[in-house]
Specification:
Number of helices: 4
Shape: rod-shaped
Distance between the termini: 33 Å
Helix content: 55-70%
Low-confidence stretches: 97-103
Radius of gyration: 37 Å
Structural class: mainly alpha
Mean pLDDT: 76
């Protein structure tokens, strides 16, 4: 792979180049030799650029696969942390007092508190999912 050490001419060399003059003007052999060096440098630059674009493509491919792996790991972890067994459905307090009039007030209050807690947990999990989705859609997430 060529590198910048293979470059023969700098921009200053090209700018300050003076050609010898002959009877009819500038020596065409000297100009041709100089232009051959310029062409060789341009070929080197093109090869370096192609190599760098190839490296960029490889790194972008690795980045995409790493991001996909990270997303699958996050999904697996989020599935483990969301408790599905403790979610209870909401029943209005008017129905519980009508149908369960024989239940004492302490257990009724405890059931209502646990139901409210389950609702809050579900809302919180939903907000996390929506917020992460927005961050992915708008490109805010790494």
């Amino acid at each position: 792979m060529p590198d910048l050490n293979d470059i023969q001419l700098s921009t200053e060399d090209i700018l300050k180049k003076q050609f010898r003059t002959k009877v009819k003007g500038i020596d065409p052999d000297e100009v041709d030799a100089f232009l051959d060096k310029v062409i060789a440098d341009y070929d080197t630059f093109e090869q370096i650029i192609e190599d760098l674009y190839g490296q960029i493509g490889d790194l972008q491919g690795k980045l995409i696969t790493d991001q996909q792996k990270e997303k699958t790991l996050e999904n697996q972890q989020s599935r483990r942390t969301v408790p599905t067994d403790t979610v209870r459905t909401y029943t209005p307090s008017s129905q519980t007092s009508t149908f369960n009039s024989f239940v004492d007030n302490d257990s009724e209050q405890e059931t209502e508190n646990s139901t409210n807690m389950a609702i809050i947990q579900r809302i919180s999990a939903l907000e996390r999912k929506v917020y992460n989705l927005e961050r992915r859609v708008y490109g805010l997430q790494k």
